[in-house]
Amino acid sequence: MLYLLSLWLLFFMLIVLKADFSNLSVKGNEVRIGTILTDNLVPFICLILMIAGFIGYVVFRDRLRSAKDYPVELVECKSIDYETLSFLATYVIPLICFPMNTGREIFVLFAVIIIIGCIFVKTNLFYSNPTLALMGFSIYSVTSEEGIFKDDIVIAIGRLKQGDSIKYINLGDNVYFVKRV
To answer: pTM of this prediction?
Structure first.
């Protein structure tokens, strides 16, 4: 779900680029939904994926409320927000330029999105999320006094600094979602 959320900008731009209402036919007061869907299949799929990403975001935000671990204090805290820009420049922008004139090209686009998603999930790089950055989240490499974190990656609401106490939830091998206490 976080990967889908990271592609919100791509999905939004694809909707803007591919939405076509020029053949919208209204017969009396009746709008032909079938015509709208077939003319706008890519934007419709992108809209569904954006909704799925939003649901993931809601679940993501809600998970921290269930954190049962005691807060820990950060000894080291280094921002690695630049990785979100790398994700945007490496994956999102080139995919916008993908040709989508035929069914085969559209299939390849979505196949590439799925393959990149699998790689991001398997390598725990899903934290490189430009959408979360736009929503005020930050990414850090942190070490804690208690030894819970040792150069681990955290996604934080807002900004963190050395000495802050945080509550956390594990999202993957070395990736955590944290909130300053």
So the answer is: 0.78
